[in-house]
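REQUEST FORM: STRUCTURE PREDICTION
Request ID: SP-0412
Submitted by: Lab K.M.
Chain count: 1
Length (residues): 421
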Amino acid sequence: MLSVRQFSARQFSARQLSARRIKLRSPWAVDALVVVVVQAAITIPFVVPRAVDVPPATWATYAGTTLQVLPLLWRTRAPLSSLMAVTAMGFAYLTMHGPGQPLPYPHLVGVFTVAARGGVWQRRATLALALPFTAVAAAVRADSAREYLFAFFLFGMVYALGVLTRTRQAYTEAVEARAAELERARVVEAERAAERERARIAREMHDVLSHAVSLMMVQAEAGPLVVRSDPARAEAAFDAIAGAGREAMVQLRRMLGVLQEAPDAAHAQGPASRSPQPTLEGLEDLVREVGRTGLPVSLHVEGAPQPLASDAQVAVYRVVQEALTNVLKHADDARDVSVRLVWEAAMAAEDRRLVVTVENDGTGAPAALSGTGSSRGLIGIRERAAAHGGTAEFGPGPGGRGFRVAVELPVVISSPAEVGG
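STATUS: Completed
RESULT:
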Protein backbone atom coordinates (compact mmCIF):
# COMPACT_ATOMS: atom_id res chain seq x y z
CA MET A 1 0.00 0.00 0.00
CA LEU A 2 1.15 3.54 -0.73
CA SER A 3 2.11 5.81 2.14
CA VAL A 4 0.41 9.18 2.54
CA ARG A 5 3.59 10.95 1.38
CA GLN A 6 3.91 8.75 -1.72
CA PHE A 7 0.22 9.19 -2.53
CA SER A 8 0.47 12.97 -2.15
CA ALA A 9 3.60 13.04 -4.31
CA ARG A 10 1.86 11.08 -7.04
CA GLN A 11 -1.18 13.37 -6.84
CA PHE A 12 1.06 16.41 -7.17
CA SER A 13 2.89 14.83 -10.11
CA ALA A 14 -0.43 14.15 -11.84
CA ARG A 15 -1.56 17.76 -11.32
CA GLN A 16 1.81 18.99 -12.56
CA LEU A 17 1.50 16.83 -15.67
CA SER A 18 -2.02 18.11 -16.35
CA ALA A 19 -0.83 21.71 -15.98
CA ARG A 20 1.95 21.06 -18.45
CA ARG A 21 -0.49 19.59 -20.94
CA ILE A 22 -2.70 22.67 -20.68
CA LYS A 23 0.30 24.94 -21.16
CA LEU A 24 1.38 22.99 -24.21
CA ARG A 25 -1.91 23.61 -25.97
CA SER A 26 -1.82 26.28 -28.68
CA PRO A 27 -2.73 29.73 -27.27
CA TRP A 28 -4.50 30.45 -30.56
CA ALA A 29 -6.79 27.46 -30.02
CA VAL A 30 -7.68 28.56 -26.48
CA ASP A 31 -8.34 32.15 -27.55
CA ALA A 32 -10.41 30.96 -30.52
CA LEU A 33 -12.55 28.90 -28.15
CA VAL A 34 -13.05 31.98 -25.95
CA VAL A 35 -14.11 33.97 -29.02
CA VAL A 36 -16.65 31.33 -30.01
CA VAL A 37 -18.15 31.21 -26.50
CA VAL A 38 -18.38 35.00 -26.22
CA GLN A 39 -19.87 35.26 -29.71
CA ALA A 40 -22.49 32.70 -28.77
CA ALA A 41 -23.37 34.68 -25.64
CA ILE A 42 -23.88 38.00 -27.46
CA THR A 43 -25.88 36.25 -30.21
CA ILE A 44 -28.73 35.42 -27.83
CA PRO A 45 -30.41 38.88 -28.06
CA PHE A 46 -30.46 38.49 -31.87
CA VAL A 47 -32.33 35.17 -31.88
CA VAL A 48 -34.93 35.75 -29.15
CA PRO A 49 -38.20 37.50 -30.09
CA ARG A 50 -38.07 41.29 -29.93
CA ALA A 51 -40.74 43.84 -29.06
CA VAL A 52 -42.50 45.57 -31.93
CA ASP A 53 -41.35 49.07 -30.90
CA VAL A 54 -37.68 48.00 -30.81
CA PRO A 55 -35.58 48.43 -33.98
CA PRO A 56 -35.06 45.11 -35.73
CA ALA A 57 -31.79 43.19 -35.46
CA THR A 58 -29.93 43.48 -38.74
CA TRP A 59 -26.94 41.69 -40.18
CA ALA A 60 -24.99 44.91 -39.95
CA THR A 61 -25.51 45.20 -36.21
CA TYR A 62 -24.69 41.50 -35.82
CA ALA A 63 -21.43 42.11 -37.70
CA GLY A 64 -20.77 44.90 -35.20
CA THR A 65 -20.90 42.36 -32.35
CA THR A 66 -18.44 40.14 -34.21
CA LEU A 67 -16.05 43.07 -34.55
CA GLN A 68 -16.17 43.45 -30.76
CA VAL A 69 -15.26 39.80 -30.20
CA LEU A 70 -12.50 39.32 -32.79
CA PRO A 71 -9.83 41.34 -30.88
CA LEU A 72 -10.02 38.67 -28.15
CA LEU A 73 -8.00 36.41 -30.44
CA TRP A 74 -4.94 38.45 -29.37
CA ARG A 75 -5.86 38.75 -25.71
CA THR A 76 -3.02 36.55 -24.36
CA ARG A 77 -0.34 38.12 -26.57
CA ALA A 78 -1.45 41.76 -26.29
CA PRO A 79 -3.90 42.06 -23.38
CA LEU A 80 -4.13 45.87 -23.24
CA SER A 81 -4.29 46.38 -27.01
CA SER A 82 -7.00 43.74 -27.26
CA LEU A 83 -9.02 45.44 -24.50
CA MET A 84 -8.70 48.85 -26.16
CA ALA A 85 -9.87 47.44 -29.51
CA VAL A 86 -12.85 45.75 -27.83
CA THR A 87 -13.72 49.02 -26.08
CA ALA A 88 -13.54 51.03 -29.32
CA MET A 89 -15.73 48.51 -31.15
CA GLY A 90 -18.16 48.57 -28.23
CA PHE A 91 -18.67 52.32 -28.49
CA ALA A 92 -19.05 51.95 -32.27
CA TYR A 93 -21.74 49.32 -31.69
CA LEU A 94 -23.65 51.70 -29.40
CA THR A 95 -24.01 54.12 -32.31
CA MET A 96 -25.56 51.35 -34.45
CA HIS A 97 -28.57 50.98 -32.11
CA GLY A 98 -28.34 47.20 -32.16
CA PRO A 99 -29.97 44.89 -29.59
CA GLY A 100 -28.81 45.62 -26.09
CA GLN A 101 -26.65 43.09 -24.26
CA PRO A 102 -27.38 42.02 -20.69
CA LEU A 103 -23.62 42.08 -19.96
CA PRO A 104 -20.62 43.47 -21.87
CA TYR A 105 -19.05 40.03 -22.30
CA PRO A 106 -16.10 41.03 -24.56
CA HIS A 107 -15.13 43.87 -22.23
CA LEU A 108 -15.30 41.63 -19.15
CA VAL A 109 -13.05 39.04 -20.78
CA GLY A 110 -10.61 41.78 -21.81
CA VAL A 111 -10.46 43.30 -18.31
CA PHE A 112 -9.98 39.85 -16.75
CA THR A 113 -7.14 39.06 -19.16
CA VAL A 114 -5.28 42.29 -18.41
CA ALA A 115 -5.60 41.74 -14.64
CA ALA A 116 -4.52 38.09 -14.91
CA ARG A 117 -1.81 38.24 -17.61
CA GLY A 118 -0.90 41.86 -18.21
CA GLY A 119 2.25 43.61 -17.07
CA VAL A 120 2.41 46.18 -14.31
CA TRP A 121 2.12 49.18 -16.60
CA GLN A 122 -0.77 47.55 -18.50
CA ARG A 123 -2.70 46.98 -15.29
CA ARG A 124 -2.07 50.55 -14.15
CA ALA A 125 -3.20 51.94 -17.51
CA THR A 126 -6.39 49.86 -17.32
CA LEU A 127 -7.19 51.13 -13.85
CA ALA A 128 -6.47 54.73 -14.89
CA LEU A 129 -8.79 54.53 -17.92
CA ALA A 130 -11.47 52.47 -16.17
CA LEU A 131 -13.24 55.35 -14.46
CA PRO A 132 -13.85 57.60 -17.49
CA PHE A 133 -14.65 54.80 -19.95
CA THR A 134 -16.98 52.98 -17.53
CA ALA A 135 -18.73 56.25 -16.69
CA VAL A 136 -19.20 57.10 -20.39
CA ALA A 137 -20.54 53.61 -21.14
CA ALA A 138 -23.01 53.82 -18.25
CA ALA A 139 -24.13 57.27 -19.35
CA VAL A 140 -24.77 56.11 -22.91
CA ARG A 141 -26.71 53.07 -21.76
CA ALA A 142 -29.02 54.51 -19.08
CA ASP A 143 -27.47 57.50 -17.28
CA SER A 144 -28.84 56.42 -13.90
CA ALA A 145 -27.31 55.84 -10.49
CA ARG A 146 -28.24 52.16 -10.71
CA GLU A 147 -26.40 51.81 -14.03
CA TYR A 148 -23.28 53.57 -12.72
CA LEU A 149 -23.22 51.44 -9.58
CA PHE A 150 -23.69 48.21 -11.53
CA ALA A 151 -21.00 49.12 -14.11
CA PHE A 152 -18.33 50.00 -11.55
CA PHE A 153 -19.17 46.99 -9.36
CA LEU A 154 -19.00 44.65 -12.33
CA PHE A 155 -15.64 46.08 -13.45
CA GLY A 156 -14.19 45.82 -9.92
CA MET A 157 -15.31 42.21 -9.44
CA VAL A 158 -13.91 41.06 -12.80
CA TYR A 159 -10.62 42.86 -12.21
CA ALA A 160 -10.33 41.38 -8.69
CA LEU A 161 -11.01 37.91 -10.11
CA GLY A 162 -8.20 38.42 -12.61
CA VAL A 163 -5.80 39.51 -9.85
CA LEU A 164 -6.68 36.42 -7.79
CA THR A 165 -6.08 34.21 -10.82
CA ARG A 166 -2.70 35.82 -11.45
CA THR A 167 -1.75 35.35 -7.77
CA ARG A 168 -2.80 31.72 -7.86
CA GLN A 169 -0.80 31.09 -11.03
CA ALA A 170 2.28 32.70 -9.48
CA TYR A 171 1.86 30.56 -6.36
CA THR A 172 1.46 27.41 -8.45
CA GLU A 173 4.58 28.20 -10.44
CA ALA A 174 6.50 28.85 -7.22
CA VAL A 175 5.33 25.52 -5.77
CA GLU A 176 6.31 23.70 -8.96
CA ALA A 177 9.73 25.36 -8.96
CA ARG A 178 10.19 24.46 -5.29
CA ALA A 179 9.13 20.87 -5.95
CA ALA A 180 11.58 20.63 -8.85
CA GLU A 181 14.33 22.07 -6.66
CA LEU A 182 13.56 19.59 -3.87
CA GLU A 183 13.56 16.73 -6.37
CA ARG A 184 16.96 17.79 -7.66
CA ALA A 185 18.24 18.08 -4.09
CA ARG A 186 16.82 14.64 -3.28
CA VAL A 187 18.57 13.10 -6.28
CA VAL A 188 21.87 14.78 -5.36
CA GLU A 189 21.56 13.68 -1.73
CA ALA A 190 20.74 10.13 -2.81
CA GLU A 191 23.84 10.08 -5.00
CA ARG A 192 25.95 11.41 -2.16
CA ALA A 193 24.51 8.85 0.23
CA ALA A 194 25.28 6.09 -2.28
CA GLU A 195 28.86 7.37 -2.59
CA ARG A 196 29.26 7.44 1.19
CA GLU A 197 27.84 3.94 1.45
CA ARG A 198 30.17 2.66 -1.26
CA ALA A 199 33.13 4.24 0.53
CA ARG A 200 32.05 2.70 3.83
CA ILE A 201 31.66 -0.74 2.28
CA ALA A 202 35.02 -0.38 0.57
CA ARG A 203 36.66 0.43 3.92
CA GLU A 204 34.92 -2.50 5.61
CA MET A 205 35.92 -4.96 2.90
CA HIS A 206 39.47 -3.59 2.86
CA ASP A 207 39.80 -4.03 6.62
CA VAL A 208 38.34 -7.54 6.60
CA LEU A 209 40.30 -8.84 3.62
CA SER A 210 43.56 -7.10 4.49
CA HIS A 211 43.51 -8.43 8.05
CA ALA A 212 42.56 -11.98 7.06
CA VAL A 213 45.07 -12.19 4.19
CA SER A 214 47.86 -10.81 6.37
CA LEU A 215 47.16 -13.42 9.05
CA MET A 216 47.05 -16.20 6.49
CA MET A 217 50.30 -15.03 4.86
CA VAL A 218 52.16 -14.95 8.18
CA GLN A 219 50.90 -18.40 9.15
CA ALA A 220 51.51 -19.84 5.67
CA GLU A 221 55.11 -18.60 5.70
CA ALA A 222 55.73 -20.07 9.16
CA GLY A 223 54.02 -23.40 8.48
CA PRO A 224 56.56 -24.98 6.08
CA LEU A 225 59.44 -24.06 8.41
CA VAL A 226 58.09 -26.06 11.33
CA VAL A 227 56.17 -28.79 9.55
CA ARG A 228 58.93 -31.35 10.30
CA SER A 229 60.52 -29.99 13.44
CA ASP A 230 57.29 -29.02 15.24
CA PRO A 231 54.22 -30.69 13.69
CA ALA A 232 51.93 -29.39 16.42
CA ARG A 233 52.89 -25.78 15.70
CA ALA A 234 52.49 -26.35 11.97
CA GLU A 235 49.03 -27.78 12.56
CA ALA A 236 48.15 -24.74 14.67
CA ALA A 237 49.36 -22.48 11.87
CA PHE A 238 47.15 -24.21 9.31
CA ASP A 239 44.21 -24.08 11.73
CA ALA A 240 44.80 -20.35 12.11
CA ILE A 241 44.80 -19.98 8.32
CA ALA A 242 41.51 -21.83 8.06
CA GLY A 243 40.01 -19.84 10.93
CA ALA A 244 41.05 -16.51 9.45
CA GLY A 245 39.58 -17.53 6.09
CA ARG A 246 36.30 -18.63 7.63
CA GLU A 247 36.03 -15.45 9.68
CA ALA A 248 36.68 -13.34 6.59
CA MET A 249 34.05 -15.27 4.63
CA VAL A 250 31.51 -14.81 7.41
CA GLN A 251 32.05 -11.05 7.54
CA LEU A 252 32.04 -10.67 3.75
CA ARG A 253 28.90 -12.78 3.49
CA ARG A 254 27.23 -10.55 6.08
CA MET A 255 28.12 -7.35 4.20
CA LEU A 256 27.14 -8.71 0.80
CA GLY A 257 23.96 -10.17 2.25
CA VAL A 258 22.92 -6.79 3.61
CA LEU A 259 23.55 -5.26 0.17
CA GLN A 260 21.56 -7.91 -1.69
CA GLU A 261 18.80 -8.37 0.85
CA ALA A 262 15.38 -7.33 -0.45
CA PRO A 263 13.35 -5.00 1.78
CA ASP A 264 10.54 -7.52 2.18
CA ALA A 265 12.97 -10.25 3.13
CA ALA A 266 14.70 -7.98 5.62
CA HIS A 267 11.38 -7.12 7.17
CA ALA A 268 10.33 -10.75 7.34
CA GLN A 269 13.61 -12.03 8.82
CA GLY A 270 14.14 -9.11 11.17
CA PRO A 271 17.38 -7.91 12.70
CA ALA A 272 18.17 -11.36 14.09
CA SER A 273 18.99 -12.64 10.60
CA ARG A 274 22.10 -10.45 10.46
CA SER A 275 25.36 -11.05 12.30
CA PRO A 276 26.20 -8.30 14.79
CA GLN A 277 28.78 -5.67 13.96
CA PRO A 278 32.07 -5.86 15.91
CA THR A 279 32.17 -4.07 19.25
CA LEU A 280 34.77 -3.16 21.87
CA GLU A 281 34.27 -6.55 23.50
CA GLY A 282 35.59 -8.15 20.31
CA LEU A 283 38.99 -6.50 20.74
CA GLU A 284 40.17 -9.26 23.06
CA ASP A 285 39.39 -11.92 20.45
CA LEU A 286 41.06 -9.79 17.79
CA VAL A 287 44.24 -9.43 19.85
CA ARG A 288 44.19 -13.15 20.67
CA GLU A 289 43.78 -14.02 16.97
CA VAL A 290 46.75 -11.88 15.97
CA GLY A 291 48.75 -13.33 18.84
CA ARG A 292 48.42 -16.81 17.34
CA THR A 293 50.78 -15.69 14.57
CA GLY A 294 53.57 -15.44 17.13
CA LEU A 295 53.37 -11.65 17.36
CA PRO A 296 53.31 -10.53 21.02
CA VAL A 297 50.25 -8.30 21.32
CA SER A 298 48.85 -6.87 24.53
CA LEU A 299 45.63 -5.01 25.27
CA HIS A 300 45.44 -2.38 28.01
CA VAL A 301 42.39 -0.40 29.14
CA GLU A 302 42.80 2.67 31.33
CA GLY A 303 40.05 4.66 32.94
CA ALA A 304 36.42 3.80 33.50
CA PRO A 305 34.80 2.49 30.29
CA GLN A 306 31.79 4.54 29.23
CA PRO A 307 28.83 3.60 27.04
CA LEU A 308 29.75 4.25 23.42
CA ALA A 309 27.47 4.39 20.38
CA SER A 310 27.51 1.20 18.30
CA ASP A 311 28.85 2.87 15.14
CA ALA A 312 31.71 4.38 17.15
CA GLN A 313 32.50 0.93 18.57
CA VAL A 314 32.72 -0.43 15.02
CA ALA A 315 35.08 2.40 14.12
CA VAL A 316 37.36 1.65 17.11
CA TYR A 317 37.41 -2.06 16.27
CA ARG A 318 38.29 -1.39 12.62
CA VAL A 319 41.01 1.10 13.59
CA VAL A 320 42.69 -1.45 15.84
CA GLN A 321 42.25 -4.17 13.22
CA GLU A 322 43.85 -2.06 10.49
CA ALA A 323 46.71 -0.98 12.77
CA LEU A 324 47.49 -4.61 13.66
CA THR A 325 47.26 -5.56 9.99
CA ASN A 326 49.87 -2.91 9.20
CA VAL A 327 52.13 -4.42 11.85
CA LEU A 328 51.80 -7.85 10.22
CA LYS A 329 52.54 -6.36 6.80
CA HIS A 330 55.33 -3.92 7.51
CA ALA A 331 56.83 -4.67 10.94
CA ASP A 332 57.50 -8.40 10.85
CA ASP A 333 60.46 -7.93 13.24
CA ALA A 334 58.33 -6.33 15.95
CA ARG A 335 58.76 -7.84 19.40
CA ASP A 336 56.24 -5.78 21.29
CA VAL A 337 52.84 -4.55 20.07
CA SER A 338 50.63 -2.62 22.45
CA VAL A 339 46.95 -1.79 22.02
CA ARG A 340 45.83 0.82 24.52
CA LEU A 341 42.35 2.26 25.19
CA VAL A 342 42.36 5.31 27.46
CA TRP A 343 39.01 6.67 28.68
CA GLU A 344 39.45 10.35 29.55
CA ALA A 345 36.69 11.43 31.90
CA ALA A 346 35.51 15.03 32.22
CA MET A 347 32.82 16.95 34.06
CA ALA A 348 31.22 18.09 30.82
CA ALA A 349 29.84 15.28 28.66
CA GLU A 350 31.05 16.93 25.45
CA ASP A 351 34.68 16.85 26.74
CA ARG A 352 34.86 13.09 27.30
CA ARG A 353 37.32 11.33 25.01
CA LEU A 354 38.44 7.85 24.08
CA VAL A 355 42.08 7.63 22.96
CA VAL A 356 43.03 4.49 21.03
CA THR A 357 46.75 3.86 20.56
CA VAL A 358 48.50 1.01 18.74
CA GLU A 359 52.30 0.97 19.02
CA ASN A 360 55.00 -1.43 17.86
CA ASP A 361 58.78 -1.49 18.01
CA GLY A 362 59.42 -2.89 14.52
CA THR A 363 61.47 -1.25 11.81
CA GLY A 364 58.89 -1.17 9.02
CA ALA A 365 56.36 1.56 8.25
CA PRO A 366 53.23 1.67 6.07
CA ALA A 367 53.84 2.40 2.41
CA ALA A 368 52.29 5.86 2.60
CA LEU A 369 54.92 6.96 5.15
CA SER A 370 57.90 5.14 3.73
CA GLY A 371 57.51 6.75 0.30
CA THR A 372 57.03 3.46 -1.56
CA GLY A 373 53.32 3.79 -2.27
CA SER A 374 49.95 4.59 -0.71
CA SER A 375 48.24 3.11 2.33
CA ARG A 376 44.49 2.80 1.96
CA GLY A 377 44.34 1.54 5.54
CA LEU A 378 45.72 4.73 7.05
CA ILE A 379 43.39 6.79 4.89
CA GLY A 380 40.49 4.66 6.13
CA ILE A 381 41.57 5.18 9.75
CA ARG A 382 41.67 8.95 9.27
CA GLU A 383 38.25 8.94 7.56
CA ARG A 384 36.68 6.82 10.30
CA ALA A 385 38.01 9.18 12.97
CA ALA A 386 36.81 12.27 11.09
CA ALA A 387 33.37 10.71 10.53
CA HIS A 388 32.90 10.52 14.32
CA GLY A 389 34.31 13.99 15.06
CA GLY A 390 37.74 12.71 16.07
CA THR A 391 41.33 12.92 14.92
CA ALA A 392 44.00 10.44 13.85
CA GLU A 393 47.79 10.75 14.07
CA PHE A 394 50.52 8.51 12.64
CA GLY A 395 54.23 8.54 13.27
CA PRO A 396 57.22 6.92 14.92
CA GLY A 397 56.76 5.09 18.20
CA PRO A 398 58.39 5.88 21.56
CA GLY A 399 62.07 6.68 21.23
CA GLY A 400 61.75 7.06 17.46
CA ARG A 401 61.49 3.28 16.98
CA GLY A 402 58.57 1.44 15.47
CA PHE A 403 55.29 2.96 14.45
CA ARG A 404 52.42 4.54 16.35
CA VAL A 405 48.74 5.00 15.44
CA ALA A 406 46.73 7.27 17.75
CA VAL A 407 43.02 8.00 17.33
CA GLU A 408 41.02 10.29 19.59
CA LEU A 409 37.22 10.11 19.52
CA PRO A 410 34.61 12.07 21.47
CA VAL A 411 32.32 9.92 23.58
CA VAL A 412 28.91 10.82 22.18
CA ILE A 413 25.72 8.81 22.66
CA SER A 414 22.65 9.83 20.64
CA SER A 415 20.22 7.54 22.43
CA PRO A 416 20.35 4.42 24.65
CA ALA A 417 19.18 2.32 21.69
CA GLU A 418 22.41 3.18 19.84
CA VAL A 419 24.70 1.80 22.53
CA GLY A 420 26.24 -1.46 21.45
CA GLY A 421 28.19 -4.17 23.18
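NOTES: The CA atoms of residues 201 and 259 lie 10 Å apart.
Reviewed by: T.R.
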